[in-house]
Amino acid sequence: MALSLVAGGCAPIDLGVFSPQPKALSRVVPEPPGAACARGGQAVRTGLDVNGDDTLGDDEVTSTEYLCAGTVLVRTETLAPGDACPTGGQVTKAGQDLDGDGVLADAEVTRELTACTRVAPVLTRLRPVSWTPSCSSGATMLEAGEDVDGNGALNDAEVQASYGFCMVDSTRVRSAVHPEPAGGRCGQAGARVDAWPDMNDDGQRQPDTEPLTTLTVCQPTRVHDGDYLVGSAADLAALQGVTRVDGDLVITSETLDVLGLPELIVVMGVVRVTNSPRLAHVSLPHLRFARSVELQQNPALETVSIGRTGGPPVFVDEDVVVDGAPKLASLEGLTPLNPRRHLRVLNLPQLQTLSFPHITHLSLNLTVQGNDALRSMSLPNLVFATTVWVTHNAALESLSGLATLQSADQLLIGALPALTSLSGLDGLTFLRELIVAECAGLKAVTIPHLTRVEQLGIQDNPSLESVSGMPRLQVSWLMRLSGNAVLHELKDLSSISAMHTLDISRNPALKDLSALGRLVRLEQLGVYQNILLEDLSGLAGLREVASLTVAHNPALRNLGMEALVSTTEFFDVRSNPLLPTCQAQRLADRVHTGAPPSRIIDDNDDQATCLNP
């Protein structure tokens, strides 16, 4: 069944399967020596699987790329200072050794890249953090790097090294920058930052009690200005040695098996690895900053590593997206990533766990969806995200990985058949919208510290028995309990006093509404198709309702609601076969002030009598 929900009064959110589109396929076949490849090689044919047989037929081929035999060679040339590079640089040329002579001839060059050398002052900065891999509580983070943009301040994109001083105030951290000679920590010339905690505030380091920490900043920075597309081994070879790309880095290749860029530190644009059918391994071990990181539709991808696991965070200014990698079983190599806007992990059928320990806030979305083997997730420091969608993860048993989440605009928990409780959400205090839907194994909805929700939807959970244990919860706009086949207990909801809409429908085991007895005012009340519900006396405190609808409740015998004093817009009581018609009429006479057409009493028990009041 497709999961379709109406959220926030807008169009339905459809998390079902979209209409299938023809898949992109490729086929690699031997290419004999000839016009395309003088020494032979491979032909990579691509196209769309129009007939849906999972095979790329000759009539479906739309393009052919040739990978000719020959070793990829690289040649570098020093670039003197000039218009292209004011402080000099180098030109890297790459191509295949077609004639096999071991020398890259001009005619064999297929990719040329200019990288300008930038030598900039080394700066440091201090900032407080709530957590680091080595500090379980507060720390002061020392960060160092080159001021590449020359603005006099160290930006996130310029940070090359960092260290967290656990439980040390920033006023106590001392540091000094020193030159690092060629052949030292960097291999080439660079700088080092010596730092220590000055615990006695005397300005001098005490070796026995104030340990020295050294950060290394390698210089010079080699910058490629502009976007860079990697489609072949020659393209990748030309990029070796570049430390910074001032643009997007896009990898889309029919032929690459391995992507490794060990010297790359900064990508000012997006790192996008997409639609590479043979790519199995990605390694960017020294990356420290990117605007976004996107890995999408890479069917052979088995391992990916960005940054250093257990090391400092990799700042990602916007998004991290991992989608459509059926062989990828682990995201351990992505744990350093710290996106600020989106984190999306989708359609990874082999993934069992995910962990992103550095994330504290997401200005937009956290989406974990369609990961069939995912059993647990860990975001141990996430405090806020605008929306959190955890849906269609068939094996996910617990939400304990969200234990520190305090608030969100929308939390959607849907189609999680292995989930039995919401016990991992104990830190939540505020949500604009909470939707819990189509969780086949869910037994109870309890979020003990939740105090305020604008919209609450609990619907179509076939094993749900109880909604309880939320004594401080207030709902301001909508509360919908719908389609929960065995829901029989509402309990400890005593702070709910007023809202716009209460919808209780299609709950065949629900008999008692007394947990909502302190509810005083509603704009809309709808009670539909609750098979065992015999009376509404549990709504004992309800005084004002603008529109009231009670319909298709086969066991309903008594409206109750003795405290009700007014319905102003709509009074509709119909198709309740055991409810005396006279009782509905008497209540309408007493409370309804709307025009006659807004009063509908029909198809109830016309034969029953009512005692005189």
From TrEMBL:
Residue span(s) of domain DUF7151: 25-68, 73-116
The UniProt record lists the keyword Transport: no
Predominant cellular place of this UniProt entry's protein: secreted
Listed InterPro entries: CWI-Assembly_Regulator, DUF7151, EF_Hand_1_Ca_BS, LRR_dom_sf, Rcpt_L-dom_sf
One GO CC term on file: cell envelope
Compartments where found: Secreted, Cell wall
Descriptive protein name: Leucine-rich repeat domain-containing protein
Organism: Corallococcus sicarius
